[in-house]
UniProtKB/TrEMBL annotation:
<feature type="transmembrane region" description="Helical">
    <location>
        <begin position="282"/>
        <end position="303"/>
    </location>
</feature>
<feature type="transmembrane region" description="Helical">
    <location>
        <begin position="255"/>
        <end position="275"/>
    </location>
</feature>
<feature type="transmembrane region" description="Helical">
    <location>
        <begin position="81"/>
        <end position="99"/>
    </location>
</feature>
<dbReference type="InterPro" id="IPR020846">
    <property type="entry name" value="MFS_dom"/>
</dbReference>
<feature type="transmembrane region" description="Helical">
    <location>
        <begin position="105"/>
        <end position="128"/>
    </location>
</feature>
<feature type="domain" description="Major facilitator superfamily (MFS) profile">
    <location>
        <begin position="12"/>
        <end position="396"/>
    </location>
</feature>
<feature type="transmembrane region" description="Helical">
    <location>
        <begin position="140"/>
        <end position="160"/>
    </location>
</feature>
<dbReference type="InterPro" id="IPR050327">
    <property type="entry name" value="Proton-linked_MCT"/>
</dbReference>
<feature type="transmembrane region" description="Helical">
    <location>
        <begin position="12"/>
        <end position="31"/>
    </location>
</feature>
<dbReference type="GO" id="GO:0022857">
    <property type="term" value="F:transmembrane transporter activity"/>
</dbReference>
<feature type="transmembrane region" description="Helical">
    <location>
        <begin position="309"/>
        <end position="334"/>
    </location>
</feature>
<keyword id="KW-1133">Transmembrane helix</keyword>
<keyword id="KW-0472">Membrane</keyword>
<keyword id="KW-0812">Transmembrane</keyword>
<feature type="transmembrane region" description="Helical">
    <location>
        <begin position="220"/>
        <end position="243"/>
    </location>
</feature>
<feature type="transmembrane region" description="Helical">
    <location>
        <begin position="373"/>
        <end position="392"/>
    </location>
</feature>
<feature type="transmembrane region" description="Helical">
    <location>
        <begin position="341"/>
        <end position="361"/>
    </location>
</feature>
Length: 405
């Protein structure tokens, strides 16, 4: 289906800047939650599995909310949906600060915060970019948005640790919630939606999804994205605690997360640039294969500050570099009109992987006292995802009335 994007009322550079700041705040906040694993579990007496379950539910709620948020943004406009998401996200993080037990923490950190992340996500930012950016520049601009998310992780990891050290974990969350409210005014610059071309009616949610799911390459893309979520969530939530278990300081854990974010700025930009020049599905296969190699190499050597930072740098280059390529393929398959919703479906698979990675990490640790089994599973899944992406066909799906790519 062809689409018509109205000329934006806001200059394109301002749209990109505002979207990148939103992506940095939203993802940076989410990336800092692993720093709270030890202080929250020790202060509230939670087991690692209980905390991991709250974070797992957060990822699942994020994944469930995002397709619906994308659908509303496609139909009613990105700006107002992002503003609402910023409010929900801030309320969830604020609620985390005053949750006294497992059930309340699961509700605030898990459900409310997860829904807020899903509504105020960088997926909606990329949908807004897809609406106003010319097709030949989309992969690169998606890479810029992804790099901004990583910059947020680089900033919020030491910032969050600094807040925890200076004010304690509860007031640290209060300060972070206040920062999240900046999403509300910034979202006004991303207002607008993609219009259907004259003579083309909007497809209902389930009809558009049914058409998309009938395309085999989209199914493979969605399945493969599960592994990305598994890797990211497990490492993000459990890596700081794993390094402390190995004898390193909490500060090393926070800087490890920050290094991942720093190097992913380069990885995301490179991925977006390469995505406009090389087959996206083969780049994705290479990324998952290299992740498996990086994890395997990390396990071969004794854990030290050097190996932790080296692993973080390697994973950082591969961290969110899948996102501009995946979003680029979704837009290529189906056009920008349903990009928010259909990328949201792919991201739901990503968040199912996140749920499994976070929960399984806590469960295996409580059961065995170590994370080794989950690391090994990460290698196997990386190799499997690499194989899944190779057969993907980089062309438009004619069910949506698009011209072949």
């Amino acid at each position: 289906m062809s689409t018509v994007a109205a000329r934006p009322a806001v200059p394109l550079p301002l749209i990109i800047i505002a979207g990148c700041i939103i992506a940095a705040i939203g993802f940076g906040t989410r990336g800092s939650f692993g720093l709270f694993t030890l202080p929250i579990t020790e202060d509230l007496g939670l087991s690692r599995e209980q905390w991991g379950m709250a974070m797992a539910i957060q990822n699942l709620a994020w994944g469930i909310a995002q397709p619906f948020a994308g659908g509303f943004a496609d139909r009613y406009g990105t700006g107002r949906v992002l503003a609402f998401g910023g409010v929900v996200y801030a309320l969830g993080v604020l609620g985390m600060a005053f949750s006294p037990d497992t059930l309340t923490m699961t509700m605030t950190a898990g459900i409310v915060t997860g829904v807020g992340i899903g509504i105020a996500s960088f997926g909606l930012v990329m949908a807004a970019f897809g609406r106003v950016v010319p097709p030949e520049k989309r992969s690169f601009v998606f890479g810029i948005a992804t790099a901004a998310s990583s910059a947020g992780q680089f900033i919020f990891a030491p910032l969050g640790q600094g807040f925890i050290s200076a004010f304690g974990w509860q007031m640290a969350l209060v300060w972070i919630a206040a920062i999240l409210l900046l999403i509300i005014p910034l979202s006004a610059l991303l207002r607008g939606r993609t219009m259907s071309a004259p003579g083309h009616a909007d497809l209902p949610f389930m009809e558009a999804l049914s058409k998309a799911w009938g395309y085999g390459s989209y199914r493979l893309l969605v399945i493969g994205f599960f592994v990305c979520g598994f890797h990211l969530a497990f490492i993000n939530v459990h890596m700081p605690a794993y390094l402390v278990q190995c004898g390193l300081s909490p500060e090393v854990g926070s800087w490890t997360i920050a290094v991942i974010g720093l190097f992913n700025i380069a990885g995301s930009l490179l991925s977006g640039w390469l995505g406009s020049r090389l087959p996206k599905q083969l780049l994705l296969a290479a990324i998952y294969f290299l992740r498996a190699l990086a994890i395997g190499a990390f396990l071969l050597f004794p854990v030290s500050e050097l190996t932790a930072y080296t692993f973080a740098a390697a994973m950082g280059l591969l961290w969110l570099s899948t996102v501009p390529l995946t979003a680029g393929l979704v837009t290529l398959f189906f056009g920008p009109r349903y990009m928010g919703m259909l990328y949201g479906i792919a991201f739901f698979s990503h968040q199912l992987g996140s749920f499994v990675g976070v929960w399984l990490g806590g469960y295996v640790y409580d059961l065995t006292g170590a994370y080794d089994l989950v690391w090994y599973l990460g290698i196997i899944l990386g190799l499997a995802s690499a194989a899944i992406h190779i057969p993907i066909n980089e062309r438009s799906d004619d069910r949506f009335g698009l011209k072949p790519a």
